[in-house]
Design brief:
The complex is a heterodimer of chains A (about 270) and B (about 270). With about 270 residues, chain A is of the alpha/beta class. Chain A folds into 2 domains: about 1-80 and about 155-270, P-loop containing nucleotide triphosphate hydrolases (Rossmann fold); about 80-155, no CATH class. Chain A is about 35% helix and about 25% strand. Chain A has helices at about 45-55, 95-105, 110-120, 140-150, 170-185, 195-200, 230-235, 235-250; strands spanning about 5-15, 20-30, 35-40, 60-65, 70, 80, 155-160, 190-195, 205-210, 215-220. In chain A, strands 6-7-8-3-9-10 form a 6-stranded mixed beta sheet, sandwiched between helices. Chain A has a 4-stranded antiparallel beta sheet with strand order 2-1-4-5, with helices on one face. Chain A is globular, with a radius of gyration of 19 Å. In chain B, helix 4 (about 75-105) packs antiparallel against helix 5 (about 105-120). The longest helix of chain B has about 40 residues, at about 180-220. The two termini of chain B are about 35 Å apart. The chains are: A alpha/beta (about 270), B mainly alpha (about 270). Chains A and B meet through strand 6, helix 2, helix 4 and helix 5 of A and helix 1, helix 8 and helix 9 of B.
């Protein structure tokens, strides 16, 4: 396996009128091809900043971000981004949204339609191809955004709390669907969440981050086999890793948390 | 990713639908009709009690209106006014939209244009009429110019605001799909600011009508403002009311047409005000 993404000593400082805020402080991370990485941590730990550095939407103040051994200079369709707020173009139908990136790749009209419908079918939205985003539920909007990102065939998907705005039942379903899709083509995914359960259930490695300044406090391997399912979620092995991540998030790795094994305990908000 | 999961979202969607059904406003059509009839009735009553020849009754107004419809003078005045309003309004909007886009997109354009827009916005277009007459004379160009200015100033800021309000997440979404500046501008910024532009156009239309009558009061051979001015000299108050009603109706119809166009082009919006 080769490194797809290398973050070397990356620091990001936001300058405001009230002084500088260090969002990311000398962070190092390597992501191998085909990995499913989750970044978990409280607000202000710099996880979104890190994702935006990889995506090219932000530039590091110092340090380097390499993708395919080349420094990231700006956004590229090779790095797909899924936003928490879906970011569908509200004036375009689901199909036209998926075609947006394909049009920029100069595909013919027929090819675009065929590809768009294929990916909409993959996320179960074929019947909604002509629906406007306002006619879709939150989960369906995010499926459409995922189809749009997949359609341009990026080598990595960057997901910024994609299921954060969904209800608990939909979220679990979306997690299973995403894993199912990922298992088929093993495309590299970097996934942000503040939900410890979600972080462990999805990832092959969980990157725990701590705030002020944003740093990686711990990287925890999840040696649980794929495909994963409900039974695994309730297994003692899962609970054990979950507890480790929970402690990492809430106590920066020191001390014990009050009740880390309770199945309902996730980070607040 | 399967279809089954859509079912799990159904209750939430239904709940939203239920809330929206409760909020749906009742139809006000009958109230509108009733208040119009009531208002005209009150007017007739007041005019009958006053018995003053300078206060026209609804019947006087309809009779006079019919007479100038028949002899063609009403149409002559109306068409002259319509041409002025439409030309001034259209020129104003056509220039305001690109100007507003440039101001919203390029700091250079904003810095150069905004002080002038803000300054002239505080000056009522009517206050410019004396100067415009001296420079452009009393012909059509002077009238159209004043209407154009009113229309432009109303629309340019709305367009500018629209561009400033485009959700940055949408711009980022386009960038990560490979879009460059030009594509972002034509395929994201323009459609996203369309609702604001329509608001600006409707305000501009109102401003155009407001300026029209004043501009025709100066010196015009034809036009609704001119017709009313002439009628005033002969104390023909019924004809003045005909003019008022025509201006009101035309303004209303044009506003509705614009609203219809807006609903067609921005029906994708999540919420409707």
């Amino acid at each position: 396996m080769t490194n797809l993404i290398s973050i070397k000593n990356a620091t990001k400082v936001y300058s405001t009128s009230r002084g500088d805020t260090i969002s990311l402080d000398h962070v190092n991370l390597n992501v191998e091809e085909g990995e499913f990485i989750t970044l978990v941590g409280p607000s202000g730990c710099g996880k979104s900043t890190m994702l935006n550095l990889i995506g090219g939407l932000l530039q590091a103040t110092s340090g380097q971000v390499l993708v395919h051994d080349k420094p990231v200079k700006g956004p590229s369709p090779d790095r797909g981004v899924i936003f928490q707020q879906y970011a569908l173009f509200p004036w375009l139908t689901a199909q036209k949204n998926v075609e947006f990136g394909l049009r920029l790749q100069k595909l013919s009209k027929a090819e675009r339609a065929e590809r768009a419908l294929h990916f909409l079918d993959l996320v179960g939205l074929k019947d909604f191809a002509h629906a406007l985003p306002k006619e879709l539920s939150g989960g369906m909007k995010q499926r459409c955004a995922i189809a749009r990102a997949y359609a341009v065939n990026p080598s990595v998907l960057l997901m910024d709390e994609p299921f954060g705005a969904l209800d608990a039942l939909t979220r679990v379903q979306m997690q299973d669907d995403l894993l199912h899709t990922w298992e088929r083509d093993r495309r590299t995914i970097v996934f942000i969440t503040h939900d410890v359960d979600e972080a462990v259930y999805l990832a092959s490695r969980v990157v725990v981050m701590s705030p002020r300044p944003g740093r990686i406090s711990e990287i925890i391997d999840v040696p649980l086999p794929y495909p994963r399912n409900e039974a695994l979620r309730l297994s003692p092995e899962f609970a054990e890793i979950r507890a480790r991540v929970w402690r990492g998030v809430h106590h920066h790795g020191e001390g014990a948390s009050p009740d880390p094994t309770s199945p309902n305990s996730t980070t607040p908000n | 990713m399967t279809v089954e999961s859509i079912e799990t979202e159904a209750p939430a969607t239904q709940a939203i639908a239920a809330v929206e059904a409760e909020r749906k406003p009742r139809s006000l059509t009958w109230l509108y009709v009733a208040t119009l009839i009531g208002g005209i009735g009150l007017w007739a009553l007041a005019a009958a009690i006053a018995r003053n020849p300078l206060i026209p009754t609804p019947v006087d107004v309809v009779t006079d209106g019919w007479s100038i419809i028949v002899d063609g003078t009403l149409w002559e005045h109306t068409s002259a006014s319509l041409v002025r309003v439409f030309t001034g309004f259209a020129l104003g909007v056509l220039l305001a939209i690109p100007a507003g886009f440039l101001m919203g997109w390029y700091w250079l354009a904003r810095g150069l244009v905004e002080p002038w827009v803000q300054f002239f916005r505080t000056v009522p277009p009517l206050a410019l009429i004396p100067l415009v007459i001296v420079i452009l004379g009393i012909g059509e160009p002077a009238k159209i110019f004043v209407i154009f200015l009113a229309s432009f100033l109303s629309c340019v800021l709305a367009t500018f605001q629209g561009v400033r309000n485009v959700d940055t997440t949408l711009i980022n979404a386009a960038r990560v799909l490979g879009a460059k500046d030009f594509t972002i501008f034509t395929r994201v910024v323009i459609p996203a600011s369309l609702p604001f532009i329509f608001v600006g156009m409707r305000v501009a239309l109102g401003a155009s009508w407001a300026t029209l009558v004043a501009s025709e009061l100066i010196a015009a051979p034809t036009g609704l403002g001119r017709m009313m001015q002439a009628a005033a000299q002969f104390l023909q108050t019924d004809r003045i009311v005909v003019g008022i009603i025509m201006i009101g109706l035309l303004g209303f119809v044009m506003d509705r047409l614009l609203l219809l166009l807006e609903r067609r082009l921005t029906s994708w919006q999540e919420t409707r005000a």
